[in-house]
Specification:
eleven-stranded mixed β-sheet; about 325 residues; alpha/beta; single chain; Leucine-rich repeat, LRR (right-handed beta-alpha superhelix); 11 strands
């Protein structure tokens, strides 16, 4: 073992405990000493103290460099027992950071399957599959009971499993730039969902029961071939941002004034020509985007916003 400074020895001692708080502290101390935490971890792993860093039963039989090459095989997948680990696969390289609760798969050239061993990560909160060659999300995904954020952007998915409704703690769902054409009908069961984007997907309509997502604060359906909004949309009484840019929507619900919490409304490049007067009830509205539209009327709330913005030197409209 090479000689380490007193500070580095202290950091290693923290890592050896395997406790999440100590691992987070070790990362902070590395930054304070100008030490690259990732590189330092790799070096420590090469010194074969993997089991000391992860004392809870992770049976890795190879050094870190071999693990990096072997990741993706069933043998390694079965050994992913730690919940305080982040697997970041980016540019065909695996990096392991400690003290995180997040797994990401990025732009893999080879077809991959989501390892079922992820179910063992009982503290997993974020799962991201960005641009990975995945065409199907397994039904068992609903078994990740503590998942709070699911990012499925730029995948070749044609649908979502019905078990997604079992993710009772899910708060954010990212479905941008995917080819599927509809959302599961039981998406209304995601009662804690606050963020939903299906931007640039092939979805042609929103479920009629989307209004039951009563916690939803952000909805983005921009660049989708959607022609009409469901009447239940105005039941989203906690909604703050609504983005409808580049859709085929030609009208807003007449009772849009029920969206009392709405602060941002984006209607750029839509077929909308008339804005409901009920928009005057949107007392928290602060920004309206209507570029490249033929809207002929401006409700009083928008005229007021425009006057305020002009007085401050900029416009409400973008």
């Amino acid at each position: 073992m090479q000689n380490y400074s007193e500070e580095e020895q202290h950091i290693i001692s923290l890592l050896k405990t395997g406790e999440e708080d100590n691992i987070n502290l070790a990362e902070i101390l590395c930054k304070g000493q100008g030490i690259n935490f990732r590189d330092f971890l790799e070096e420590v792993f090469e010194l074969n103290i993997w089991r000391k860093v992860f004392p809870s039963g992770m049976k890795i039989k190879s050094e870190f460099s071999r693990l990096r090459k072997a990741i993706g095989t069933e043998e390694i997948q079965e050994e992913l027992e730690m919940s305080t680990i982040k697997l970041l696969i980016q540019k065909k390289r695996l990096q392991i950071l400690l003290g995180k609760r997040k797994i990401q798969f990025f732009n893999q050239a080879q077809k991959i399957e989501i390892p079922k061993s992820i179910l063992n990560l009982d503290k997993l909160e974020i799962l991201e599959l960005y641009g990975a060659p995945i065409v199907e999300i397994p039904e068992w995904i609903g078994g990740i009971k503590n998942l709070k954020e699911l990012r499925l952007n730029r995948l070749k998915l044609v649908n979502l499993p019905s078990s997604i409704s079992d993710l009772k703690k899910l708060e954010k769902l990212h479905l941008a730039d995917t080819p599927f054409t509809d959302l599961p009908q039981n998406i209304n069961q995601l009662k804690k969902l606050v963020y939903l984007t299906i931007e640039d997907s092939k979805i042609t309509e929103l479920p009629d029961n989307i209004g039951q997502l009563t916690s939803l604060k952000y909805l983005n359906i921009s660049h989708c071939p959607i022609e009409k909004l469901p009447n239940s949309l105005t039941e989203l009484t906690n909604l703050k941002e609504l983005h409808l840019n580049n859709t085929k929507i030609s009208s807003l619900p007449e009772n849009i004034g029920k969206l009392k919490q709405l602060t941002h409304l984006s209607l750029n490049s839509t077929n909308i020509k008339h804005l409901p007067q009920e928009m005057d009830n949107l007392q928290w509205l602060r920004e309206v985007n209507i570029n490249n539209t033929n809207i002929s009327n401006l409700p009083k709330i928008i005229q007021k916003l425009e006057r305020e913005k002009i007085n401050k030197g900029y416009s409400t409209f973008y």
